[in-house]
Every structure is written in C-alpha cells, then in structure tokens.
Specification:
By secondary structure, this protein is of the alpha/beta class. It has 10 helices and 14 strands. It has 2 domains: about 5-135, NAD(P)-binding Rossmann-like Domain (Rossmann fold), CATH 3.40.50; about 140-295 and about 330-345, Dihydrodipicolinate Reductase, domain 2 (2-Layer Sandwich). α5 (about 90-100) runs parallel beside α6 and α8 (about 185-200) crosses α10 (about 325-345). The longest helix has 20 residues, at about 325-345.
Amino acid sequence: MSERQAARDLRGALIGCGFFAENQMRAWQELPGVKIVALCDRDPQRLAHFQDRFGIEATYTDAEAMFEALADSADPGLDFVDIATTTSAHAALVPLAADRGVDILCQKPFAGSLETARRLIEYCTQRGVSLSIHENFRWQQAVRRTIEALRDGEIGRPFFGRISYRSGFDVYKAQPYLARVERFIIEDLGIHVLDIARALFGEVDRLSCETARVNPAINGEDVATLMLRHANGVTAVVDCSYATHLADDPFPQSLIEIDGEQGSLRLRQDFVLEIHDVDGQREVRDVSPEPPAWSEAPWVPIQASVLAFQADWLQARRQHRPVETCGEDNFNTLALVEAAYRAAASHHTVIPERWGR
C-alpha cells in the first residue's frame, strides 16, 4: 500500500447486490477507513434497492463498464472489489478485477472446480493482487473463542472432534435458488463447517461421507455426515442438516465437541463454552456475539462474523499480511467439498487434494 493510499480511506466496489450482500455492505459502512464508492449488479431492481438503501450514487449493470468508468474519473481509483455474486460469475470477475490491479474479496465457493480455483489463485499472484475468500464462520464469536481455547492448549492435544450444524430453518424462503441446485448442503453450508474443522484441527488426510435428501421439494442433498482424519491424528465428525426439526432450533449456531488429552471443550447452544478438565471440574464461559447495531434475529451470529471478517481483512491489508482464508488456504476447504461429493457417490474413503502438493 502506498503512502498516498494509507492517507485516505480505502475505496471499494461491491459486485452483486443479493440477499447476503446486504450484510457485507452494512459492515463496510460501519468500519472506519474504508468506503464503498460503487455498486454493480446485472439486475436493475436489486441495484436500485441497494442504491436507495445505502446511498451509493455510482451504480453499474456491467462490471467491465464500472472499472472503465472509475478509472476515467477524477477521483482516486479502486483499491479493492468485494465480489458477492454466485459462484458461476467468479471465473470471469476475479481476472477482470486482477487486471485492474485491485485486491479482491470473493464470496464462497470462490470457484466451481478445483482447476478453476487453482487458475484464479495463480492469476491473482501473477497480477500482484491479493485474493481473500469471504469465509466468516470461523469468525463467529463463539466459534472463534473455541478455536482460541484449543490453540491456547487448554485441553492439551486433541484427538476427537465433532462440529454439528442441524436445523429445520426455512433457508429456501430468502434464497429460493437453494431448492433448485443439484449440490446443496455440502456446497452451501458444509463448506463453512468444514472450514471450522480445518481452523480447529488443520489439514485433512482422508474423509468419508454419506448424504440424504429428506425434503422431497428440493433437488439436492439436505443432510450430510462426514468423518475426517486430520494430518495431526485428530478424527472429526462433521454433520449438517436442514431437515432436523427441533422445538428450540439452534439456527444459525454451530455446536462443537472436542476431546483432548487434558480435558474437553463443549460449545453448546446459546453461546455457552464449557471447559472440562481431567479432575472433573467445569468452567463455563459466555461467548455470545456482540451484535452490530444493524443486526437482527436470527442472523446475529453470522452478521457479527461478517463484520469481524471484514475488520480483519482491513487490518491484514494495512499490516501487509494475508487473511486466514486467503485463496491458497481456502483451496483446501473447497477441496474437502469436492472430496465429500466423491466419497458420497462412491461410498469409499477419499484423499482430498491440497494446495502445494
């Protein structure tokens, strides 16, 4: 970052004005030292909605036209672009932004295949721009505190883990396209839970997976159960369901169990973290999220994590370091998704690909 850039607010553009992008836009407007100066979406109605809601004057229905217009304006150019579109658009938008020399945040999954993911990472490296993936589950307050407790050695070396996300929440109401996709819960939700597993236990040597479609009105799988063998020897179970009906639905909380040589961690519903030691003592911690002023139930944990992720991205850029979920790192999470579908189809254990090998 040049001295000139450091002396002013970072200027960004948001591409994609859909359901979840509202959270990203609100978070950008809350963070100091950054300003979204342009919006882009192919749908004029969604674009107009964002323009009215967030007061952004410069709007475009074509990303290339947006880059050209901003480059020709008297204002300083863009420093970054936040790509919040569906996955199919990323293969074209990421190189388009990289060619303009701007840093990139990209919604998950950031590529439709590992081949495309590898190409996008290498392209951004060649152009000298950063590629960060908007993976925010590991930035949820309760999950983050669990990760930190494990990394701080509070239960010694772990040997077993379970990350569970089970709900009957109607996710199709706000995002109806989810009912139509052929690959659903692993690609849309499981990718987050698998990333939590990696944040906790590191890389995965092999995995198995079984899936089911319980809801007859959707095309893809809405239940998935995976067993992971991590390189450090931890065995972990990752289970996801949008077909689990509970009177006290935990949506959108991830629940975590970890057993270690010196104790156990339990992240329970309603943001309670328990630390159990070998003497049978238990410490209970409140790990509730700090709600942004604009957050609303039941989305508070996720909305707070969007703010936390984007705040860390800003700090990382100023410190000239990559974010945790840079392209190379998130490649390994995406590889677990691809391996899970292969394992479910074959009913065999699969060795996932890994960046750098």
